[in-house]
Fold these 4 entries.
Entry 1:
Amino acid sequence: MFPKKPVKLVTCLVVALFFFILNYLLKLLPVTDDGHKYENKIDMLIFEELKHLPKYHINEHEDTKAAMFLEAVKSAENVEISKLNLKELWDEANLWPSVNQLTNITSPSIGSIMYALKHARITKADLDTRGTQLKLLLTLTGGQLCVFKPKWYEKEKVIEGPVYSGKDRYGAEIVAFYLSILLNKPLTPISVQRTISLKYDILPVATKRLLNTTFLRNNRTCIYGKCFYCRKEDPICEDEHNFLTGAVIFNVKKSFSNYRSPWQRTYKKTKRAQWESDLDYCKMVKTKLQKRRILDLIDTAIFDFLIQNGDRHHYETFEDTVVWIDNGKGLGNPFVQHLDILAPLYQCCMLRKKTWKSLQNLSGGNLTKYMRLMPDVQDVLTELHLQAIEKRLLLVFATVEYCNKKNNKVR
């Protein structure tokens, strides 16, 4: 048996040497001008393309559908909720989902429906036990269900760690809805900002199981809910004025199919998924999925990359089209670009012409221009995050250029 002191000393020396070597190797990793460290050779090649983007990526186009959406929203700003036929509005919105959309962004009713989601009386409040995080399932006057995701962080909060770290950011749901409009792929449910009172709006109409997870802390009403990560020690509480802000998300009355993403993460620091190390991974995916589904997943990857939602371990489809539901893990860190979210694009090197056109229409500052015009966006999106989304759009273009050189043409 070895003496304990020498063993401890040797162990400490080995650990210290390990961290010294690790730190040295990290310093040797190539770094971009803005401090981004390349994770692999593809990262390096994409950032190299970013330096030499063709001029056609800097065009200015008018987005007529976004303009129509904004006009409809503006026209509903001064509507009185009592004068709206809520049931008719809900019925119309539930007829919108089709193979191409979840939301009809050119409907004259879209503004009134968004207004109703923000102001219609809550007639029932329950827990939404789907997923891993605290959510409420609210019923509004007229019988429409919607999901309420509460505000956990201030919008300036930077989420450190892996791309899937932290709790859901309610603002990411709202920005994702707007982004789907700007991409001309309205595949997200309507999401709006709403401030409620747990004490006055929720508790009087709460179900028993919701009430069972409610308590007072410092004279403020708190809820800890029922979900995988829900704990009484970590509740959401209203503020000193009895208010709680969050995202109200339209609960579409349709059935969705659920599938495991081929690009799912392992969620383990010491274990990489096959797609993270297999450069020919897309060849395997093509043997299992049809081309249309792969193109859907590439569109989804671009959408997720722009807001940095790296947590889409599963995806939903409606009428065999991938829809963009559950986007709360976006807007975590504006200083980091997780290029691996674009793996479906740079591994498969395919892209719809329609998607390419929509992306180009957002270049030249149009993305920022229209995003700044969206309702309540100043409450959920910082200037740093907006600048980061703009930069990521250019990185998408750079990835397409990488694919062009790899395969002659991707579009």
Entry 2:
Amino acid sequence: MARLVLFSLFFFFLSILLQIQPGVGAADDDECKPEICGDIVIRFPFRLIERHSDHCGYHGFDLSCSPNYQTILNLPLTTSSSSSSNVVVITHIDYGSQMLYAEDPDGCFVKNFENFNFSASPFQLFHTYDIFYYFSCPHDSSYKGINSSELCPPYYELPCPVDCASDSTQQVYAVSINAELYNLPPWPCKSITKISDLKHFSLNWSEPMCGHCESLQKLCRFRDINNTQHNLTEHETECYGELKQVKQPRDFSKKLIITGYCLTSLVILVGVSLTYSILTSDDNKRY
């Protein structure tokens, strides 16, 4: 009876283990399937560098996933600022409107803005509400604005210092887009950019045009040139398949591996017990 129970347990756990393993193999065959980093689903035109092949994403749409599950985009830098940080953190991707919502990891986007080479990037800064102008004024200029952020008016009608972006050579000021013209810092101060928030900002892209696929509840991909008679460029895309909710959590693979290890251990344990039972039974028969 004990031997029958051990045999039953052995084949039960073995069948569970065999059911899990093919599922992993099948997922690996689809190298361009949507992936998750944190709470963000990453699919074409983006690709996740750690998991997707080069052909899975559009040129310049490379994302990476940090150890703490932050989705990272590296923006191109100007030649003169090659030593500066080009990392921004993506907090949301709106595939329908082709928008990226991002934040500066240092909480001071305007500090790095001049170092970004947006002309070499497929993404452009998207201006939203509550826009502020940012000006850079040399310390040796005659202009002296408000010298403390604590003294700034509530709606920034006057230029207010931005300490995180200022250094020994320049003082950076923020001023409301609705401020009177005569309140703006004069030359030699220069305008850096206009954004709505020091930390959070938005980027959009115009190519490839995959937003219409979202409205059709379909996925987007490169068009397979080998299966058509038309003269197509490598940049043309098409809608295909069905847009489904990706339900796997970010640590699904880890849980799967742990489950596999546990089941493997149980199979080994049952096998050892079964072998011991058989050997013990044979010894008893001899006596």
Entry 3:
Amino acid sequence: MANRAYCLVLPVILGGLLLKLWEPQAVSDSLKVRMNEKTQIVSFNANVIINCELYDFHLLPLEINGIEVRWFHRRTNSANEVKVFEYYGGKQTSFRSGASISISGLRMGDASLFLPLIQLQEGGEYRCEVIISPNRAQATSRLEVEAQPSSILLPQEVVVQEKKVFTLECIVAGFYPEPVQIIWKKVISGTHSLIVDNSEAINISSNNDGTFNATSHLILQPLLEDNGTIYQCVVVHKSLLTPLQSSTTLIVTELVKSTDVEKTIMYVLLIVMVLGFCVWFFVEPFAKGNTQVTALCRWSKDWWRQGLRQHQALRLQQRQLSRVVRRLFGSNLRHRVQ
């Protein structure tokens, strides 16, 4: 009796097992997508691929006409989400210029998004959504866009007079994000460097493309022994693996001084002027009617006037010479700094 019951139950058990084995795989598979867990850091204007892949899904290759893919972007510190790309019914629709996915990659479960020439404002959170009816899966990933400094504007050498207060300027251009550190160093013995503290606060300005510029000033009052000294402008920014730096060399010149000959001429003219004034002022009132004394007074008066004119002309020449020297060194310096 027991054997007979066993024979009746056994076909039922075997039939159940066969039905389980022949059940469609889609019933047991769950749709899952995977994206980068770490923030993806990319360079400004680079071509970028944001990964989004199906995993633990065994029905590959896929019938792509039955797949729907959507990509969304949300900027940093923003609650609004914007659709970037959509694939549906075998058609790609880009809401951001150049956005696309690989059709051959999608057949193998790769829905990664391609974005050419990434811009600074495109950093933030990206969401990938994949639909294989009736299943739906999604994941998010973060993207950060950086721009390395494009240049450091610092002259190779600058000319300055000794003991004159002088401002050295270093301009760092085209970086993002905004935080930046600029350090001034003085090179000692050609190998060692010493950080210089007498620099002003950094001035930050923005460009039309969203990048920033920074300007730092170093105040100097060099002596003749500082001639040939090398100063370095060192830039520290998160986009740089190592600090960026540029160097300049000081050319210190002596102060422009009046020569001894010019001083002697000035003293002689001053004495002649004083004597001529004395003769004119004190002698002439008592010498009326005396032609010789009157002639001497007139001669003294003419000498005094001539000496005054020469003195004024010499002073004018000195002022003009000083302006020329200042303009020469000043324009040369500004030209080098620019």
Entry 4:
Amino acid sequence: MDTNFSPIATEARAMRTSLRARRKWGCIDGTIGKPEEESSKMEDWWTVQSMLVSWILNTVEPNLRSTISYMENARDLWDDIKERFSVVNGPRIQQLKSELAGCKQGAVSMVTYYGKMKKQQRWATKLQGFHYEIFYKHGRDNRVVDALSRCESAESILVSLSSPVPTVLTQLAQYYATTEGKQLVEKLLKFST
């Protein structure tokens, strides 16, 4: 199955990899054929088919699942899904790419907005490890911030003005100095030996 340029290429590759890992891809590509009707292997073959049909249907979006014809043979089901969803609509894909490229958040392009958002997420992650309080200071009284807001690179000045001090180790040391903390350490030492 050539799915390199198909809209379902990623899902198809993932399913193919999963089925190969379970040695079941041959049921889809036809290298493992259906045994004779009277064969002792027929019941096992139907068991595998039922399992494969179930796996394939469970990977399909629930709202699309009801539109797919029920088939008991995994290869027929795979071919039906491939035929329905592998249709490439070049003009629509180009239209979506153009819309995405022109997408804006307010007056800022999405690329710029996303970059700022990632930067804010990094700072939020860095600040999560610290205990800090934010106090409102009226504009006239807050001369440092007022001066920094006029700088070209306020970020570098902010970093040099602030020095966050982690308090976790101090809090742990204080806790372990208490009777309760000492008892906990003793229990842990007994438990580990």
